[in-house]
Design brief:
two-stranded antiparallel ribbon; single chain; five-stranded mixed sheet; alpha+beta
Length: 106
């Protein structure tokens, strides 16, 4: 029951979340990870996740890449920002994200 309530709180947070995604290039290839948590569990995606308090977008991207892949990179300046406002079938907002993407080379 507690896990279900925790998941619902994660699905329907009270405030928007700031997140990063990083596009990592090496030898004409792009680094992808398989997502381990909703909302995109088991899908392939660029590495990324929530920005922690006090982090720049670049620091968050570097940390997320290291946590998800064990690879150390130096993130560049943010190259693209976008927002995601997802509504459920009742119109209630879930997964509200503002995302900045950075580019880096591994």
């Amino acid at each position: 029951m507690k896990n279900r309530l925790s998941q619902q709180k994660n699905d329907y947070p009270g405030n928007p979340r700031v997140a990063v995604g990083a596009v990592v290039f090496k030898d004409e290839r792009v680094l992808l990870v398989r997502r381990g948590q909703p909302p995109s569990e088991d899908l392939w995606a660029i590495p990324g996740g929530s920005v922690e308090i006090g982090e720049t977008l670049q620091e968050a991207a570097e940390r997320e890449i290291l946590e998800e892949t064990g690879i150390t990179v130096r993130a560049g300046e943010p190259v693209y920002t976008f927002d995601v406002i997802d509504r459920d079938s009742a119109g209630k907002i879930r997964f509200p994200f503002l995302t900045g993407s950075t580019g880096s080379t591994g």
